Amino acid sequence: MLGQIENILQHYFIEPVEIGNGYNIINTSAYALIFIASLFLLYKIFKRERVKIDKNFLLGVLPYIILGAVLRVLRDANILKSALFVTPLIYFVTALVAIAALFVSRLTEKSKRVSYFKTWFGIGIILDIIAVSFLRIVNLDALLLILGISLVWLLVVGMTRKIFHPKLLSIENSALLMAHLFDATSTFVSLRFFGYAEQHVISNIVINALGPAGMYLLKIPIVLLVLYFVDKERDINMRNLIKLAILVLGIAPGLRNTLRLAMGV
């Protein structure tokens, strides 16, 4: 029995991380459950510590989202060697760094009378500067292509808001949708123009059926549907925490894909 469990763990979880050969339905499902459970755990911790998930919190956490993506790219470029920087472990590593810095910042707020999010943001920026200093941009065309297509989508979303005034596309929700359109664009450009391959199970099925542009057809309805139900959540902290998770799931892989292309790895 133990041998079978070890074989399952080795085949479905350990090998994909060590070899970097992508995801399968087993580890994808397990990671999704762990991610959801982690959200509820964070909600409980923040509630106990009276941490509000508001605009200040978002400002403070942004550098750590960037940090996770940059560290993942440095692992792709073999500048960092540890498997801790491979997806999905990098999410947990970055989260631990962010939470540790958050509580240091909260202690500083009590003793120095400085708003915690300013210290938290500052620590994150310092870590970002250190990590970004190792990046070497060699493929500027890919970077400009992703940014250009993303700008077109930004105009489309903006015009949709201006003409139709959909309640679902609030400024906040529009930003979250754009994060995922940025991710979809980075995937589209990587696959369509630079010969990369998709590793995620569901995305791969859609891309095989519809081509790289299928990422947009996957992202747009799912993100809007999730946001529709999230907006019905009455607990502001829970609602904002889920939206933060949606942001991370869009901007982090999108930034990783973009920087990876730009570095030519």
What does this structure look like?
With about 260 residues, the chain is an all-alpha fold. The protein has 3 domains: about 1-50, no CATH class; about 50-135, no CATH class; about 140-265, no CATH class. It has 10 helices and no strands. Helix 3 packs across helix 4, helix 4 (about 90-110) crosses helix 5 (about 115-130) and helix 6 packs antiparallel against helix 7 (about 170-195). The mean pLDDT is about 90.
Number of strands: 0
Write down the overall geometry: globular
- The average pLDDT value, as a whole number, equals 91
Beta-strand fraction estimate: under 5%
Radius of gyration: 19 Å
Q: How much helix, percentage-wise, in residues?
A: over 70%
Distance between the termini: 41 Å
Briefly note the structural class of the backbone: mainly alpha
SSE order in H/E notation?
HHHHHHHHHH
Helical run tally: 10
Reported for the largest beta sheet, the result is: none
Domain count: the total is: 3
The unreliable regions are none
